[in-house]
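D-alanine--D-alanine ligase
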Amino acid sequence: MTDTTAPRTVVVLAGGLSHERDVSLRSGRRVADSLISRGHRVTMREPDSTLLASLAAQSPDLVWPALHGASGEDGSLRALLDAQGLAYVGSEAAAAQLAWHKPTAKVLVARAGYQTPESITLPRETFRELGATQVLEGVLQHLGTPVVVKPAMGGSAQGVTVVTEAGDLPRAVVDAYTYGETALIERKVFGTEVSIGVIDTGSGPFALPAVEIVPRSGVYSFEARYSAGETQFFTPARLDDSVAEVASEAALAIHQTLGLRHLSRIDLIIDSEGTPWFLEANVLPGLTETSLVPQGILAAGLDLGAVYEAIGEVAIRDAR
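Tokens:
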């Protein structure tokens, strides 16, 4: 990791209007505190109509977006930061846009030769135009049950439902539409659920130890993610060494396939044969006290503040 020669001025963006506002604020505070502990001058602010003018006037060394949801992850903010010539942490706009749209990410990952659960993408307009009953009958005939229904764009498991009974599918699809215009219905794969952070601290991206996720309820829901004690984590994951290596290699390759940079989180299911199945990529993973990437960093024997500092230095270097 790179040693910082002088304190940096850093603006951490957090909050916003998305459904993940509270998570964003917690992530942003943790990042800010970590960088402050390393001697940097950090301010936190919310995105609003004065943001771009404020950044232009302040011209910080680095912007660290901690905005979960569309405002921070769909690529639009990143394109505006690029237009202003500002250094920022995270993937560039085009890559963020591709990864943010789960069906697109699945296609790209499958074309690269990795397994991902079979799925059907269902826009709300199609759901209405072709008739809910007929559409869902076709989905069930093709995918069967159980399936996982989720918004095609979104995070923190909001709007996600595991459907084991056919009669529960309509409600699950409607719930997914609460969080976006398109639902992704995916055949459920059984196995060990893991999440692998990929970070770049100056010598290229590398995979952190896999975090195994065992929610008490059996479903890694929003509550299970952000309520202490609702999920048991094993870091590193309880995988055979050879399986863990395959999963890490897959996570790193998927990060690169999607064109991501600086940090990401790749979510996988490891089946009984040891095959990793790609679920989704997170271009702006949560960095709260219960989040998975920080757990991976600590499991690797690294200091959070030093890692965040080093990632910031890579972002500044890339902007140059």
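The mean pLDDT is 92.
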